[in-house]
Structure formats: C-alpha cells, structure tokens
C-alpha cells in the first residue's frame, strides 16, 4: 500500500500538467492513523468533484461500544460524525482555482437524523465518504495546492471529526439518546392504540417556509396536551414523557385560520423521522406507515383502480384501470390515496388547503342539483370511515370548512392560539343538533385495492452514451435517464440524498425484482428487506456518500410518477 508521501510525490510530479493527469492518484494510501481511498477522480475541474474515503480503525477512533450498540444508536452516531466532518471541512475549504477547485465537502444533514452512506460504522472501523474538487488553473493541475488539501487539510479534518477523544462527548451522547428515545416511542405507539404522539413542551412552528429550524423569535408557544388526550410513556434514556396521543381512527384538526392546524399536521407528517436535539420536535413521533396525501394537478396516472372514489364517467369509461397523462385535482388525489394503500400505508394525512374541494365534500344542496347518477366523484367524507372499518387505515385530517366531517370523526382537536383542545364531545353535540341533510354516497364498503405489476422495460435510466444516469434535483425531482420525475407534491421527502437513493433503488428494483410477475408491493417488500439487511450500499456497487434513508411509500411514489411507467393489473380488467 502506498503512503501519503507517495501521494505527495505524484502530485508534485503532475503539477502543471493537463487535468486528466490527476487520474494517476486513484488508489489507496496509508496515512498513519487512517487509510485514504481515492475512488474516483473527476475528469474536469467543472465536473462533479472527486470521490474519496477515509477509514479509521475502531481501536484508533476509540468510540465506546455503547455508542453504536444498536441500529438506532449507530445511525445517530453516523449522523453526528457526518455533521462534525462537514463543520471541520467547511472551516478549511478554500476556493483555489477554476470550477470546483478547492471544494472539500460531505453530505450535509438537515433537521432529521437519517441513515446515510456519508459515514459507515462497523465494529472494526469508521469510514467517512466525501468529495474534493481537485484544484486547477484553467485545466492545468495545481499539484502543490492539491498536496495541501490531501496531505494536510484532510488529515486535520479526520483528526477533529472522527476521533472520539476530540469530540464533545455530552453533545454526542445527547444526539444518540435523543434518537433512541424517539425510536422507542414510535415503536410503542401501535400497542397504545395511537398513530402519533406530540410531547408536551415541543416547539412546532418553523422559522419560515424555507427554514426548517424552530421558531425562536416573537411569540413561541410550547405545546401542551389537553388532559383528555394526555398519554405517558417511559423512554430508555429520558424516563417518563407526557404529551398528546392521537388515537387510531379518524381525527379532525379544526380551528380558525392561523391558529396552528397545518403546523400541527406538518409536525405529525415529519414525525416519521427522528430529529436532532434542539429541533423542538424531538419527541413528535408518528407511526412509520403514515403517508401525506394531497391533490396533484397534471400528474400521470397508470392503470390505477380509483373506482372507490370515481366511477360512472361519461361514455362508460372505466375507472378500474384509470390512465391519464394530466390528472385533475380530484382524480390525482384519488390515485394518490389508492397508490399509498397499495404500498401499505396505514395512516393517511390530509389538509383541506392542499386537497381538491370536490373530492373532499359534496353538500346537500349540490346533491339536490346534481344527482349521483351524474356525479362520478364519491367524496372522501363517504369513504373515510370505510377505510378504517375495512382496512384499519386511520386518517388525520385538517378541516376548517366543513362540519359534515363531525359525523364520521372519532376525535376532534381544535387548535386555539397554537394550543390543542379536545372538542370531540362538543362536535358530536353539534352534529346531533344539526343533522346533515346530505345523503351518504359511498356504498356499503370501501372497494378493492387492485395490485399492479410494474413492467421493467418501462423504466429506462439510460441517457445517450451513458447506460445509467440517475440524480436528484433538490428534493423536488429525480432525473432518471432522459426523464424527470416530479416529486414536488411528495411532501415527506426532506433531503436530496433521499432522492439519490430512491432513484438508484428504482434501477435496483428494475434489475433485480421487476420480473413481470411480482406486484409493486412485493417489489417494495424485497427492496426494503435488502436495505434493512445490507444498508443503502446494496443499491450501488460504488461506495458513494450521498445516499440517505427512504421509505417504501416515497419509492412507490417515484415509480408511479415516472411518465413512461407501464403496469399490468393483477385480477383487474387487464390482468
């Protein structure tokens, strides 16, 4: 194995040459307390930066076994080290030439603690994966500058971020125990008959729509559960915690405008993830199978059985294998629900502000004017109870405009100046006093959820001369070959690296499991199991550092939104 001195000699030798001479440094170097891997060298200073790794033996790194003794702690420790590496790299990074010259960076986490490939921890070693923009003047190698980066700055970053003795032990322990407590709390919800929990003292409002950090200025209201919904749990590190439990069934969140209805729902929808200490939502947790649903005008729908919600289309058009390249608000919301159910969702989260009005409610007067025979849409109001009785799928719904939902709700929470009140009894009194005159339109049962088989030939990630071209565009889209998958309406995605891994998981599923026989649900099961057993690295033969954990529901959403997708229904009209 070569040494850092060998790397220095190569860099000085190629100084001033054409940029492609940097290819000479690809390889493995022993750097005293760690090993440096130069896995891939960029071909141009303006191209994606070069990919490197450092691996420190665990005996040298010195992390106590209890800091990574289970999956929860291991994920949190890796997250903590990623943040430490990013901070130290940011201090030393200096632009030094053309293009990306001088860049030193690692995947940057946000408010959530996600499984990542940026730092990998085993009982034998700690590995950090990062990128460096190898410096150039124009397209000429700046070997001396590169030498400083790779043989001086990188070792300094490693020393300060990947060695236990140099880290803040109190902060590290808090990071780990916060995540472990959240995981323990989430695991206890179903046994307690709950779908979500919001701890007393939580801070739910965010600074802005583009700043997910907790609100810290002005009037900041800390959360406090109403007594009737208060629940207590004993956590492994924090001890007893109290807060509001949201029970299974149908829950309405009501209240006046600007009183915190959507803020509460937003916290619940992101409660499927753990949050960092100081986020304010550390103990706002939601069961893992909760999926946010909204209307999505213009999306493509491929052979989805939306007949539970939409039927009797003009000219006898079937909705049991509904296809469109340009869905309306109501048809897109119907498809989004059915696709979520197909993927295994156990809780639906909806906000009337992002829902299609005609999908949510059809009042008595409209029923009188437009008979059911002339109205294809069965409103969600008439199906939400059946979802729970037939499939045990709960719903949490923000509703400020229709009291008709009082008739079907199990729990009604009113937000009043950002504090919740249990108004279930009062809502039921009102529903009894002012009985709805509208007629139920939902039939006796919800309807079938027809499974579909994705056809592998319709997922093509190739682009030009490149066999596979997959990448994220922020948290809004995935570039999959020549196609862009619009995920802007998939609101539980929080990190671009999730989109990187979802795009790669689509290709992985296509190559390994899309055999023309497996249903989408079975494919999601298989991918989920592989990642659980082998980590995100199973998705790619390359050791990449920009993959983050994702759920099966967002993977399904990406597959369903690929505009070239073709499927075959199982037992459907074209099965």
Mind sketching the topology for me?
Layout: E1 2-3, H1 4-13, E2 27-30, E3 35-40, E4 50-57, H2 58-61, H3 71-92, E5 104-105, E6 112-113, E7 119-121, E8 125-132, E9 136-137, E10 140-141, H4 143-161, H5 169-189, E11 194-199, E12 206-208, E13 211-214, E14 230-235, E15 239-247, E16 250-254, H6 261-269, E17 274-275, E18 284-286, E19 290-293, E20 301-304, E21 322-324, H7 329-342, E22 347-351, H8 357-360, H9 364-369, H10 384-391, E23 394-398, E24 411-416, E25 419-422, H11 424-433, E26 452-454, E27 470-473, E28 477-480, E29 483-486, H12 496-512, H13 520-534, H14 552-561, E30 567-569
Parallel strand pairs: 1-2, 16-23, 16-24, 19-22, 22-23
Antiparallel strand pairs: 2-3, 3-4, 4-8, 5-8, 6-17, 7-8, 9-10, 11-15, 11-18, 12-13, 14-15, 20-21, 24-25, 26-30, 27-28, 28-29
Helix pairs in contact: 1-4, 3-4, 3-5, 12-14
Description:
This protein is α+β, with helices and mostly antiparallel strands and 575 residues long. Among the domains are: 2-167, no CATH class; 452-569, no CATH class. It is built from 14 helices and 30 strands. Strand 12 (206-208) and strand 13 form a beta hairpin. The radius of gyration is 26 Å and the shape is globular. The mean pLDDT is 95.
